[in-house]
Each structure stands twice: as C-alpha cells, then as structure tokens.
Amino acid sequence: MVRDLLWPVVEGKDARDVQGLHDAMFATLRPWGHYRGFVQEGMSGIDQALWDIVAQAQRVPLYRALGGAARERVPVYGSKVYTAEPRAMAEEARAAVARGHHAIKIQLGRSAEWGGPNADVEVCRVIREAIGPEIAMGADVNSAYDAATAVRVCHRVAKFDLWFIEEPVFPDDIDGYELVRRSQPIPVAAGESEFGLFGFRELLKRRALDYVQPEIARIGGFTAAMRLGALAQTHNVKVAPHTGFSCGVAQLASLHLAAATPSLARLEWMWIANPLAEIFTTPLPQPVNGELALPERPGLGLSLDRKKLEKYALR
Ligand SMILES: [Mg+2]
Fold first, then answer.
1. Positive or negative CA dihedral for 119, 120, 125, 128?
2. What's the CA gap between 67 and 261, in Å, rounded?
3. CA of 18 to the centre of ligand 1 (A)
4. How far is CA 24 from CA 27, 84, 126, 129, 285, in A?
5. How many Å lie between the centroid of ligand 1 and the Cα of residue 246?
6. Residues with CB under 5 A from ligand 1 (ion)
7. Residue 214 in contact with residue 228, Cβ under 8 Å?
8. What is the CATH number of domain 71-294?
9. Which of 203, 205, 46, 206 is nearest to 214 (CA)?
10. From ligand 1's centre to the CA of 192, what distance in Å?
11. Would you say the pTM of this structure is higher than 0.85?
12. How far is the CA of 82 from the centre of ligand 1 (A)?
C-alpha cells in the first residue's frame, strides 16, 4: 500500500511541503473510499516521517517544528487497569499512584461472565476508595455498552468522580454519543477509532464529546492531528492523544504532538510492557511524577535499533 499507492505521490517532492503532501495522499485515497483502516495508517506513517525530516533539517525537536512547545513537560495519565477481580484492580491502581501517577485509566464494560454493569459499578467504587479523591480516574468501555446502558451505568458511577467515560458506544453510533453526552454528568471521550478528520468534525459539531483522543498513527499523522487540535480548541474540547499499544515511533510522535498541542488534557502513557515500543537504541522517555520530559535531539529524537526491528521483519 505504501510502496504502490502512496510512495508515487511523495517521490521526488520537497518534504517541507508536508501539509500539501498530506492532502495529496488523501486526495489519492479518496476516490477508492480509503477513509479508514490500514490505508489511513500507512498515510499517517508517511506524514510522521515527513515531519521528522522537516524537523531534522531545521535541527530542532519535532515539537518545535510544529510551532513550539506549549508546555515544558507533558502530563500523562497512566493506562490502564485491565479487567480482573475488583480487589486486584484496586491494588493495581493503588500501585500506579504510588509510582507517581496523578491520573489513571481503568477498564469498564465487563461481559456477563465478569458480572456485567453491576460489577462495573463495584470496580469504580473499590478503585476510588483505593486511590483517594485527588487522583483523576478515567474509564474506558471500548464500546461494550449500548447508549441506554451507558447512560444508566454513568448515573450509577458518577458519585465516584470519573474524569471521563471513553468509547461508551461503538464509534459509528454518533447518535449514541450525542445521547450519552446529553443524558448523564460524566465527560465523554473518544477518538482512537476515528480515521482522518471528518468523523471528529461530526462529533464536535454535535457537541458529543468533551475530550478527543486522536491516535497519530490513524488520524493522518501530525498534519491531521494538529488540525484536529485547532478544531477541538474552537469547540472548547480538550485533546488527550491515544497511544495504546502503538509502536515506539507512534508513541514518541504522540509525545511531540502533546507537547505542541495548546489544548492538551493529558497524554496516554501505557504502563503495560510492549516490545513494539522498545525499538530504539535508547529507551522511550519514562514519566517522573506523572510527567514526561521533552526530547531534546532534532526530529523525533531517538534512533531506531535495526537489530531490534529485524525481529519483526517479514520474509
Ligand atoms: Mg481506549
């Protein structure tokens, strides 16, 4: 896809025209209806590489090429406490706070085998009890509810002071998002399943979200993510970039994006081991007291370790 569809669009072009190249790639994909999925992910990868070239040519860290740091350090939220027995989840959350996190994310949307929505309420209760009132606690549903269930559960857990409820319903149920946002008090977050800007535009226009969570490896790289930041700002919506189990390049790119985004809430930072993230000659930056320092070297700031990458080569 990259070699045959997208490379011919950028071959021989000036990387400094990165925004125009982004739009040229999108214009190439549009007639085939390639708005979502790995095609957009391929395009997102090229856009990240082009911005890396631009920043390296300017000899500045990438966030400076994007318009400078909006902040000196990037606040993160630790992610995430996955489904287990409620007591075990509370213990994991407490340990994350002990490691210095000021904000964490927990998993909700339990299946019937795990106790369903009633157990979700219990999970919120025991974790809030374990971490105390000062820690921001978001909850990720991964689209496990329908809108009516989401509204009902949110009313029951609101007293445990949730920072946000993430992906309460399926990404394409925009009516559902609108209903959830209007019918209960917890702020609504989504975006990791959106590809490109147009889905976000609709969600923002309908006032369906309080936080957008763009994934830089899906939305269309830095170009689209920075445009989303501006769009979100005009709607008074905060940005909390998604990283999840992304590879190391996307994690690093998300750090630069977060640094350069004026309306940042917090960057997601996964505490779960991810071999695809450890592909550099030096480790990815680690949070200290819930914050990440900004890379200082030009471009993305770390060098790929070819030996580590070789493990994942397809033959
Ligand atoms: Mg999520």
1. positive
2. 9
3. 29
4. 5, 46, 51, 52, 33
5. 12
6. 140
7. yes
8. 3.20.20.120
9. 203
10. 6
11. yes
12. 11
User: CB atoms < 10 A from the CB of 57, how many?
Assistant: 13
Q: Ligand 1 mean position to 166 CA, how many Å?
A: 6
DSSP state of 284: P
Distance 104 CA to ligand 1 centre (A): 12
Q: What one-character-per-residue DSSP string does 137-155 give?
A: EEEE-TT-S-HHHHHHHHH
pLDDT tens string for the chain (315 positions)?
899 999 999 999 999 999 999 999 999 999 999 989 999 999 999 999 999 999 999 999 999 999 988 898 999 999 999 999 999 999 999 999 999 999 999 999 999 999 999 999 999 999 999 999 999 999 999 999 999 999 999 999 999 999 999 999 999 999 999 999 999 999 999 999 999 999 999 999 999 999 999 999 999 999 999 999 999 999 999 999 999 999 999 999 999 999 999 999 999 999 999 999 999 999 999 999 999 999 999 999 999 999 999 988 888
Residues 6+ positions from 308 with CB-CB distance below 8 Å = 278, 279, 280
**Where along the chain do its domains lie?**
2-63, 71-294
Distance, CA of 141 to CA of 157 (rounded, Å):
13
Distance 315 CA to ligand 1 centre (A): 32
